[in-house]
Amino acid sequence: MLEKIREGSQGVIAKSILILVILSFAFTGVSSYLGSSTEVAAATVNGEEISNSALEQAYQNERGRLEQQLGDMFATLSADDNYMQSVKQSVLERLVAEKLLDQNAAELGLRVSDEQIKAAILAEPAFQTDGVFDNDRYQAILRQLGYQANTFRDMMRTDMTRRQLVATLVGSEFVLPGEAQYVADLQGQTRDIDYKIIDATPFLAEISVTDEQIQTYYNANLAQFVRPEVVSLDYIELDANELAKDVKITDADAQAYYDEHKANYTQAEKRLAAHILVQLGDDEDAAKAKAEAIYKQLQDGADFAELAKTESEDTFSGEQGGQLDWFEAGVMEPEFDTALFALNKGEYSNVVKTNFGYHIIKAVDIQAGAQASFADVKDKIVAQLQDKQAVDKFYELQQILADTSYEVPDTLAEAAKDLDVEVKTTPEFTRTNAPELFSKPDILKEAFSSNVLLDGMNSDVLEVAPNHVVVIRANSHKAAGTMELADVRNAIANRLKQEQANEAARKQAQEAMTEVEASGVTADYIAKAKLARFDQEIDGAIVNKAFAMAQPAGKASVDTVALANGYAVIVLKQVNAADGVDAGLLDALKQRLSSQYSENDYRAVIASLKAKGEVLYPVAE
Questions:
Q1: DSSP string covering 122-157, please?
Q2: What is the rounded end-to-end Cα distance, in angstroms, of the chain?
Q3: How far is 381 from 411, CA to CA, in rounded Å?
């Protein structure tokens, strides 16, 4: 067939067609250079476009920031397309706000001079070495970020101009001392209340609902009964840990490996070291002279441990007679290490200099190296060989799985046959209750992807964990939709019963409130003195209501509040002023209020600029 195509391509007609094709590509290429781009802008602000490429770059930067800030949690969040779309939309709104600010700054004639930019660069700590501007460091950072010097200066000019405008509009906010004091007094306020809970549970036994009521509720609240998307998967799983269970390692295999790798099972020589340290300090010559004087005392018969206690400047080891710890070769600094391993047991060294100072080192004890016996390490070797063979087998099978599931993409049967394994099937699950094997964000995202659900294809090989993979395909799929009445009938009935029971509790609470207002008697109520806003011992609805009630004027204030299962009657008897406000709390409140005011001002400025201008969000056709 290929030969016929080659022969046909030599004919006149074929050559004519080829020329036309070439010309069409040529004209297309020329138009791409001469004509304007057909890309739809992400947004247009007063006639100025924000390109999709600019949005994408800002979006990727935001993704990176969120990933660094949230860590492992970001992997779960990023698997939710709706969440990531909201992030992208917020990035676009930020770009629109910045464009509006830039335009407004230009209208106001705001400028940033070259000297101001130069001063900002010179003052930037990132470009300094020991507090002084370092041009080499500046150039290196720009190269690392991929900026030219003139491009970076232009970016700084735009940013500084924008900040000049924002500081003018927002930076003038201030908080009066009385404002912070007022908020602190409110937050520190406590209240004395009596309260009584009317439980709705006793009313449930007397309530019944009809089929008509259930149907009416269902019809009026269809949005509450949306069924999430559900999928069941067929999958093939490969796990090196499971493969290892079938690997048989003989004693002869383990012995051969031990004989070939005896060096790996040798316990290194260890030495228990002690030292007397004289730190370098400002006068190195004096430190060396002191160390040599101590060495002379040792030679004259002084006790090493006693000298360490009185003369060593390593306080911790000095209290232990200079004793440090057991060390293998190569652990300490080279000079210390060489001196220690040149000593016999009980000997001490000459004066040795390291980065820490001048040492006199003693080998307190020596633990000779030893060869571990085969019996001691046999189990470790067997496990190691099992893992190695299992991993080798895993990679071999993984390649077969990848090849076959790709070549025959509409079934897993062929791949299962080649691997001599079974195709497993999951129960139905949603995005929020996936089996553990499929709960990893990347796998969950693939399980609900169009490739698997709509196209009916096998997935790529997906990593569950190191040396543990799956390939999945859809077994069954139910799109999101409205649940049938039969599936939610009992839930609706229970909800209607609860609502009627709560209504009965509300009526009883109203009657109790009327009685208290008339008599002022709260003998069977629970008393709570000095209730604080953030009290955790009482239902939050009661606390919130108590602090929303008006202060008593002559007599107690009385009101009711709905609870999850009933109602409560609240009697507010007294409002207590805050005991005292800490100065640190006042400062924190001032900062918080100032930030809130500035944020509100900024949002108001952007809203005003939007209202006066024209912001469009074009949609590609």
A1: HH-GGGEETTEE-HHHHHHHHHHHT--HHHHHHHHH
A2: 41
A3: 40
Kindly state the average pLDDT of the residues 547-553.
Answer: 91
Name residue, tokens 């390291």: 354
DSSP 460: -
How open is the CA angle 138-142-146, to the nearest 5 degrees?
170
Average pLDDT of 22-45?
52
Overall average pLDDT of the 242-260 stretch:
90
pLDDT digits (tens, 9 = 90+) for 79-136: 777 888 999 999 999 999 999 999 998 888 888 888 998 998 998 898 898 888 888 8
Half-sphere exposure of residue 135: CA atoms within 13 angstroms, side-chain side:
2
In three-state secondary structure terms, 386 is helix
> Which amino acid belongs to residue 193?
I
Whole-angstrom distance, CA of residue 353 vs CA of residue 289: 12
20 has a pLDDT exceeding 70: no
| Mean pLDDT, residues 238-244 | 93
Encoding tokens for residue 396?
């071999």
C-beta of residue 489 within 8 angstroms of C-beta of residue 482: no
Percent of the chain with pLDDT over 90: 53
Q: Cα dist. 199→152, 499, 500, 508, 598 in Å?
A: 67, 13, 13, 10, 46
Q: Which of 45, 397, 68 is nearest to 236 (CA)?
A: 397
CB 160 within 8 A of CB 120: yes
CA angle 308, 313, 315 (to 5 degrees): 80
What span, in angstroms and rounded, lies between the C-alpha atoms of 43 and 249?
Answer: 66
Q: How far apart are CA 495 and CA 517, in angstroms?
A: 32
